[in-house]
Design brief:
The complex is a heterotrimer of chains A (275), B (354) and C (295). Chain B has 354 residues and is of the alpha+beta class. Chain B has nine helices and 21 strands. Chain C has one domain: MetI-like fold (Orthogonal Bundle), CATH 1.10.3720. Classes of the chains: A mainly alpha (275), B alpha+beta (354), C mainly alpha (295). Chains A and B meet through α8 and α9 of A and β6 and α3 of B.
Chain lengths: 275, 354, 295
């Protein structure tokens, strides 16, 4: 056997291992959503589901999954819009300000992302209670924007750095104001960065649990993660419905990952080491 | 059309002095070339004129009005950048019309102007393409078109030909000259290429390390360089420079160089006793095979460029390069004689012309 | 720089700064303040007296707190170690160009993309004592021997660790991948020409050059791991017998379940200080390089 053959075999084995590691547990769980009740809890386990939609119907009817979904969409969507808007302006400013200041401010912003949620949750809760914003969309969106801004700005600043200053100079000479140059030249050219930051921001807001748990106590306003975590059955754990809810929650994310995997990887690793 | 006055401009970046008391004037409709090696501050000066950078001292006047407090938008200058800076997300037509849109021109007018400019530069078939689909030469034209379309007061060009290949450079240079004759805009053209300076400019400003060395029409720059830097920078092959002292002997002036001497009959030269640097251009040295006449030198190398030949000779310890016709031939090691006409000599004391 | 431009940039930056000040900096300052008081929600008649560092002193005496701290440290150590290892492995795989590479990337990203609570429920399901796949994998159909993983203190913590490793290895993989992609292909080619085989190439080229990326991943993951909450909340609620009562969960219980605002906040401040120290190390070693390179 040639050395090349062994290397290839080991490589394929490695790849299969990595893929299996990532996918198998997930598929095992989510496939339960399509099984019947007995299949879910059977030993030996039923690998292949019957593709029954019973659990989905039950989840929607008995557990009101739909409104959790709607809430998640509203919260995550709004957060993304606001964060990217603020972040685009802020990131551009940081890419163009004098190095020393920009560096300091950026470090400060990065530091904000490192703090444990619990340290800010209490006072935020009290503030929202004071404003009457508990159990409202803005009560969750505003802290979320603060939590996602550091990541968005980190990515966007790096993308804005890539845009040659000469282009802005040309537009200034052509008659733009500095603001106009940003809107007409820089922003259109940074759509990949904006897009990547949006995806990451949306995923974060969609998945967030701690603050959602605290701020939204009214089931009518809760988001999916809270709904899934607090799933209570009458006698037993309703695994089928939980799996169905999980499927609905993760389907858009999996889709996003499949379609945008290159962008996501670029965005996340852009911050790590730039070379 | 407008005149441009640069008065006493200085600029530093931290410890580095980019420009030092730069001072010159460009007439309305004139084609002025800023010539100098890389790093001499010419691009910085363009940025200051356009309003992209602020000078530390001095004033820029456009049409006798100080523009110091005006934004680039208000100065009504157009600039062609070295790397063209075309807007990648816009078509060629949109690139050309951008400046006009910014100034609020109605769209039918913009459309007409775009077609006009495109026709002038021969890029009408490219109007719907994006910059990344264009070749270097095409991009250069679009960059020029973008500036032209606005019919600005002043045209600033930052080494616009340097990214083109040699042949394209020559043809675009010609077109530029014709263009200028047609539309007579005031042009300030920055380059490090002395051939461009000589062929394009009505006036040349020679700069080095932020300082102006000479301001004159090209012929005067060539024939009467103000100092040794200008003399060596202009002219290819480079001017021959050697040291010498002018002495007087019985009413005659003898120029004594290290390995030879010449009689200098143009006695109206006050040279004092200091050491001089003397320059003579290769085309002003005649070469002949007869060793009897003139100075005897040995041929070290012959460079044949096709149209003519450069003969590199050694006279004692001095190296001199001369030009010869393409039909002549010389052997390495051959002893030949050089003829120098003293009226073609350039004298420099302390670097400056006298 | 033009002062007009500078004003514009600062204006662009101000909404961001304002929001962050309001929702992150101010709450932290407030937490620090609250932690110095005795506040019990539900007993307002006691007032909110200032007690200085009393909460912190009590924390040091609190055995549950100390236990919680050590649990968290074990969690951080175990997860970080394995995640970096598995992440390195995955990154090395993804770094090669092969057909289906995008698909592998997508697969590897899925654990990262799904909500932590979903993965927590998932592992709760897999570790189930009656019909969980883990038990089936170990014991086959002999249901009598099945272990209630989440109900035994020793195995419960391991279960959470496994869950986190599954979820976050891919993130570590991405960070390390970034470091791998910076290594120029020519170095490997030169090494191949010089006769170096796979292991040698790894040891002499790859390993030294990805150390910065590994360091970044290490610090990043460590900081993140200290903040673990979702997994413990959903899978075990901190039990059994506080075996998985990680710091943030303990703080949450004290603050929002038992109403000990002051005391719970002191716990959160402690976590904050630990994370702050780690952040400073991180930002100092990474941040400067980041900005040097990109500007």
């Amino acid at each position: 056997m040639s050395r090349g053959f062994w290397t290839k075999t080991v490589f394929i084995f490695g790849v299969s291992l990595a893929a299996a590691f990532s996918l198998v547990p997930f598929l095992l769980f989510v496939s339960s959503a399509f099984k019947t009740q007995t299949q879910v809890t059977s030993i030996p386990p039923q690998w292949w589901p019957d593709f029954s939609l019973k659990f989905f119907r039950s989840a929607l009817k008995n557990y009101g999954i739909m409104h959790y979904l709607v809430n998640s969409i509203i919260v995550a969507g709004t957060t993304t819009l606001v964060t990217i808007s603020f972040g685009a302006f802020g990131g551009y400013a940081l890419a163009r300000l004098k190095k020393r200041w920009a560096h300091l401010i950026l470090m400060g912003i990065l530091a904000c992302a490192m703090f444990p949620q619990i340290a800010i949750a209490g006072p935020i809760w009290r503030f929202l209670q004071m404003m009457g914003w508990l159990n409202t969309y803005q009560g969750l969106v505003l802290p979320y924007v603060a939590l996602t801004l550091p990541l968005a700005i980190w990515i966007l600043t790096l993308f804005f750095h890539e845009i040659p200053r000469e282009l802005e100079s040309a537009s200034l000479v052509d008659g733009c104001t500095r603001f106009g140059a940003f809107i007409r030249v820089v922003l259109p050219l940074s759509t990949p960065g904006l897009f990547t930051a949006s995806i990451l921001c949306f995923i974060y807001a969609w998945n967030e649990f701690f603050l959602a748990l605290l701020i939204m106590t009214d089931p009518a306003r809760q988001t999916m993660p809270v709904g899934i975590a607090l799933f209570q059955g009458e006698h037993t754990v309703p695994w089928g419905e939980i799996a169905a809810a999980s499927f609905l929650t993760t389907a858009p994310l999996v889709l996003m990952v499949l379609v945008f995997q290159r962008r996501i990887v670029t965005g996340l690793s852009a911050g790590a080491v730039k070379g | 059309m407008a005149s441009l006055e640069i008065k006493n401009i200085s600029k530093r970046f931290g410890k580095v002095v980019a420009l030092s008391q730069v001072d010159f004037h460009v007439e309305d409709g004139e084609f002025c070339v800023l010539l100098g090696p890389s790093g001499c501050g010419k691009s910085t000066l363009l940025e200051i004129i356009a309003g992209l950078t602020h000078q530390d001292e001095g004033t820029v006047f456009i049409d006798d009005r100080s523009v110091t407090n005006l934004s680039p938008r208000e100065r009504d200058v157009a600039m062609v950048f070295q790397n063209y800076a075309l807007y990648p997300h816009m078509t060629v037509a949109q690139n050309l019309g951008f400046g006009l849109r910014m100034r609020g021109m109605p769209s039918e007018m913009i459309g007409k102007k775009i077609m006009e400019t495109a026709r002038l530069l021969g890029i009408t078939e490219l109007l719907d393409r994006r910059p990344k689909e264009l070749s270097g030469g095409q991009r250069q034209r679009v960059a020029m078109g973008r500036a032209l379309a606005r019919r600005p007061n002043i045209f600033l060009l930052d080494e616009p030909l340097s990214n083109l290949d040699a042949r394209l450079r020559v043809s675009v240079r010609l077109e530029l000259k014709k263009l200028h004759e047609r539309i007579q805009t005031t042009i300030l053209y920055v380059t490090h290429d002395q051939v461009e300076a000589m062929t394009l400019g009505d006036k040349v400003v020679v700069m080095r390390e932020g300082k102006v060395h000479q301001i004159d029409p090209p012929q005067i720059i060539y024939n009467k360089p103000a100092d040794t830097f200008v003399a060596t920078f202009i002219g290819s092959p480079m001017i021959n420079l050697f040291k010498g002292i002018m002495t007087e002997q019985e009413g005659r002036f003898i120029l004594k160089a290290e390995d030879f001497h010449l009689e200098y009959v143009h006695g109206d030269l006050h040279v004092g006793n200091g050491e001089l640097e003397i320059g003579i251009r290769p085309e002003d040295i005649t070469v002949s095979h007869e060793p009897a006449k003139g100075l005897r030198a040995t041929v070290e190398m012959v460079t044949d460029v096709g149209a003519e030949k450069y003969i590199h000779t050694k006279l004692g310890s001095t190296s001199l390069t001369a030009k010869a016709a393409k039909e002549e031939s010389f052997q390495i090691g051959e002893t030949i004689s050089l003829g120098i006409n003293p009226s073609h000599l350039h004298f420099f004391h302390d670097g400056r012309r006298i | 720089m033009n002062p007009k431009d500078q004003r514009l940039y600062l204006a662009f930056l101000s909404p961001v700064i304002f929001l962050l000040l309001c929702f992150i900096v101010a709450p932290i300052a407030s937490s620090l303040f609250i932690s110095l008081h005795r506040i019990i929600i539900g007993l307002p008649q006691l007032g909110n007296p200032f007690v200085g560092l009393e909460n912190y002193r009590e924390l040091l005496r609190d055995s549950v707190a100390r236990h919680s701290f050590w649990i968290t440290v074990i969690f951080v150590a175990a997860t970080t170690f394995f995640e970096l290892l598995i992440g390195l492995f995955m990154a090395l795989l993804i770094n090669h160009r092969f057909p289906g590479r995008g698909l592998l990337r997508a697969c590897v990203l899925i654990p990262w993309a799904i909500p932590t609570v979903v993965s927590a429920q998932m592992w709760r399901f897999l570790f189930n004592d009656a019909y969980g796949m883990i038990n089936y994998a170990v014991f086959g159909a002999e249901t009598a021997r099945y272990i209630p993983w989440l109900a035994i203190p020793g195995t419960a913590l391991s279960a959470i660790i496994v869950a986190d490793i599954w979820k976050t290895s891919s993130f570590a993989a991405l960070l390390i991948l970034a470091g791998l992609q910076v290594i120029p292909e020519e170095l490997y080619q030169a090494a191949k020409v010089d006769g170096a085989r796979l292991w040698r190439r790894f040891r002499h080229i790859t390993w030294p050059l990805i150390r910065p990326a590994l360091l970044i991943s290490l610090l990043f993951r460590t900081i993140d791991a200290f903040r673990v909450f979702d997994l413990a909340f959903v899978m075990t609620q901190g039990g059994p017998a506080d075996a998985t009562n990680v710091l943030q969960l303990y703080g949450y219980k004290k603050m929002f379940v038992e109403g000990w605002m002051g005391y719970g906040t002191a716990i959160s401040v402690c976590i904050f200080i630990i994370v702050l120290i780690l952040s400073i190390i991180y930002v100092r070693s990474v941040g400067r390089r980041l900005l040097e390179v990109s500007v």
